[in-house]
Amino acid sequence: DADVTQTPRNRITKTGKRIMLECSQTKGHDRMYWYRQDPGLGLRLIYYSFDVKDINKGEISDGYSVSRQAQAKFSLSLESAIPNQTALYFCATSDPRQGSDTQYFGPGTRLTVL
Amino acid sequence: GENVEQHPSTLSVQEGDSAVIKCTYSDSASNYFPWYKQELGKRPQLIIDIRSNVGEKKDQRIAVTLNKTAKHFSLHITETQPEDSAVYFCAANPSKAAGNKLTFGGGTRVLVKP
User: Do B101 and A101 touch (CB under 8 A)?
Assistant: First the structure.
């Protein structure tokens, strides 16, 4: 779905570096989410935001922080990257006000921490 | 919090046969159960969902059933085709108060053999 974009698509970094992953959407949705995907573990929620002034921790928020700069932008930061944060990261959006609970995912960012 | 278990983790079927994936959830207040399909290298996309006031829902070759008493729901794919090969994720929405926050199962890799 081209309405939800993520940058970068791939990133290789070293242990201890600060990394920011960005998500933008043109769907006009109020809710945004960050997930990480690891083999066999499905999609695990890191942080979510129901509007610009709302930030909530998900099930695995340790080591991560987020910023909702605008309704359309939601960034995920790794303050000091470590190897077990190597994963595929997805941003998603939804808006029940539009009559659906569907979450729309971005294309993903593959992050490797060496 | 909510816990979603998904089985099997891998499923191999002959083209034309049926495939069934089962999920159980722990929070009896959960009221929304979507299924997402993720093709290789692609983002997860919603294929079907069901709410707690409905026992079964069909969309062409795909159906989902829900047993609230037993707290489990299943995805049924009939007349499987090679393009059904993908990873499938079930999810549950823990409660109305949680908004759209979803808890995902670990995923099932389905391979349809021609």
Answer: no
